User: What shape does this take?
Amino acid sequence: MKEVEIQGIKVDISTGCGGVWFDNFELAKFDEPFECAGETLLEACSPYIKEDIDTAPRLQSPRHPDITMMRRSFSVKRRVEVDECPKCGGIWLDPGELHAIRSLFPGEEAKNQAADQHFEMLFQSPEIQAMRAESQASLKRAQRFAGLFRFLCPSYYIPGKQNWGAF
Assistant: This one.
């Protein structure tokens, strides 16, 4: 791994394959197409990139060698899978993934719109609607049950809620 500083941010580039390690929250400085730091990083990685790298095996965290990283989709489009360290939140990008991430959305607004559409689609599913109806029915039952206690034990009997009596 070779540490490179780009616009005040230190990232690690693998000299063996051209992959990049970002500490927690560093990827956000490079993922947009208009950020010149991303272009600089792509240029810094280009001499090391090897196309025949097998990305199927799960990787160990470069910061915590005893921990296997988790794979997750980078965005709601699910076109790019990144490896994330569950202990420190660092992200490993295989060769070519930074370029793919930068080409997913033209900007932050497009990314937010895609996320909103995705969540709207999720919450309109029949399964979620059934769970919502069941939750509403449970809430009504709980409110009726609580109403019984208000009838049986009005608040003026609760200690400290009245101006009279020996409580």
Q: What stands out?
A: The longest strand covers residues 2-6. DSSP finds four helices and six strands in the chain. The first helix runs from residue 36 to 45.
